[in-house]
Design goal:
Structural class: mainly alpha
Largest sheet: 2 strands, antiparallel
Number of domains: 1
Strand order of the largest sheet: 1-2
Radius of gyration: 23 Å
Distance between the termini: 68 Å
Length: 342
């Protein structure tokens, strides 16, 4: 077997595996830096939470995804099938097969991390119920997807070694169905915090800023849609998988790692520098109360007694402080040109 390095063309043989190789390096380094920054920001204030642990495990899973993708490239993934020797072809397809599992695990953990963050901020009973329902759907279809991926052929080896007389599921329908479910759950996770935010007794601008921060995950949904298009195109010619599945693999890597980055953005709180307000963009405690409590202003107790409104206090702690999310400041500067009724 020949090591094709980073997937660049050599000896007159077509090879565009380098697209996958470079994408995997750029995305894993980027997502890794965001996770490190997130952990530093969180640990400087308090201990890491369950959402932080989930995103760390997701990063580890993404590293495994990139590793197996690069191993597939070393064995000729990115070349035409006819240009590969049988041992190389089998090994390239095997690495591609293995990479599918950490991809699905990464996507699942990204959504779980986002929901766990929501649960730290909004603690009303109805919201928690819906959050756990959505989390159950995400974890359930992900476990089902991973199981179907592993046992898509019986024996399992038949998934990458076509010399076996294996019984396999219709992988075309499975891939499309999984991709559609992935997009639907993306939308469900994005929609979760919108209603609690809109119920806050604060200005429209502040509500809009909060919504924009949580809706940054919409970029992941866009990449999921683009991946579905790529998957659909690749299924038209499965006879040359090692060549035709490259663009699909690129979007797979982008989606998985962009999900990690999007999950980190609401947590990162770094000073903007000279252009940022000295005290950040604060939400006054008295403004963060539900309509039902509008006639009963929050009174902060200094006697050590329990806070009667922990949900509102959690949102306030997240939204205030001397160090803030850079994107929040950028958004605020942009929306400062607009006038909203308080």
């Amino acid at each position: 077997m020949i090591d094709r390095g980073m997937g660049f063309p050599a000896d007159g043989v077509d090879n565009h595996g380098w697209k996958l190789y470079i994408t995997s390096l750029v995305m894993i380094i980027s997502s890794g830096l965001f996770v490190i920054a997130r952990c530093i920001a969180r640990y400087s204030i308090h201990k890491l939470g369950s959402d932080d642990v989930a995103i760390i495990v997701s990063l580890i899973s993404s590293v495994l995804l990139s590793t197996y993708i690069q191993l597939a490239i070393h064995h000729g993934y990115g070349m035409h099938k006819e240009d590969l020797e049988k041992p190389d072809l089998r090994m390239a397809l095997k690495m591609f097969f293995i990479a599918q599992t950490p991809y699905k695990a990464t996507v699942c953990l990204n959504k779980v991390a986002a929901i766990l963050l929501y649960l730290r901020l909004f603690v009303t009973k109805s919201f928690r119920v819906w959050s756990f329902v959505v989390m159950g759907v995400v974890v359930g279809y992900s476990i089902g997807g991973i199981a179907a991926t592993i046992w898509q052929c019986v024996p399992i080896k038949g998934a990458w070694d076509k010399s076996f007389d294996a019984k396999c599921i219709d992988s075309n329908k499975f891939w499309v169905a999984y991709a559609v479910l992935n997009i639907l759950t993306d939308v469900m996770v994005l929609a979760l915090p919108i209603m609690p935010i809109m119920r806050l007794q604060t200005s429209r601008r502040e509500k809009l800023l909060l919504c924009c921060i949580f809706l940054l995950g919409g970029f992941v949904t866009i990449t999921s849609i683009l991946r579905v298009t790529s998957v659909s195109n690749s299924l038209r010619n499965k006879k040359d998988m090692t060549w035709n599945f490259i663009d699909r693999g690129v979007w797979t890597l982008i989606e998985a790692n962009l999900g990690i980055i999007a999950a980190c953005l609401p947590v990162l709180r770094q000073p903007m520098g000279p252009g940022a307000p000295a005290k950040g963009y604060n939400f006054k405690p008295e403004s963060i109360r539900s309509p039902r409590m509008s006639e009963n202003p929050i009174k902060v107790s200094t006697t050590g007694r329990a806070d009667p409104y922990p949900a509102r206090r959690r949102v306030d702690r997240w939204a205030t402080g001397s160090a803030h999310l850079p994107l929040l400041a950028l958004l605020a500067e942009g929306f400062a040109l607009l006038t909203f009724e308080a």
